[in-house]
Amino acid sequence: MALKVNENSPDFIARYNQLKALVANHEAFGNIPTEVIVSPATRQFLKESRLNPISAIEQYVSKKQEPPLVYYDYELSVIHRNKFLCLTEYSNHTFFGMKSPTREEARTACAMRCLDFLVELDLAEVMKSPKQGEAEEKPEKKKPFKRIQAVMKSITFWKKRDLKTGGI
Q1: What's the confidence (pLDDT) of residue 3?
Q2: Between 135 and 7, where is the model more confident?
């Protein structure tokens, strides 16, 4: 579940406007991506995990006990169909999605670019490890005495009976 951000907070508004200026600058120079190119390792991770990019990132930051990512959605002033763009930030990096016809597609593209960065960073190791703070499951130690008792019972079972006394 994505972090519900207070879009009226002064911090959010200030950062949103800073990124809006960055988007306008990139758009003026034609530097906004039109496609998302990710590594084969990222594609393989998504295929094996069966997660969408947004869910994978949410699990990653949860396991690292970091705050969820904030996605900044922008509506571009274009006439054609690709009018939405999404940005997010992680570890002092800003990730642009691509121009998309819907907000959801723009957000998924943005998450895919960020996920590609995380795969190169340490995503596989973090996703395999248990969540920090959770106790690792320790296998129970088997008591050696039960096995010894079982072996001794089988030994006494196979002894011959003494016919005179009736005992073993």
Answers
A1: 55
A2: 7
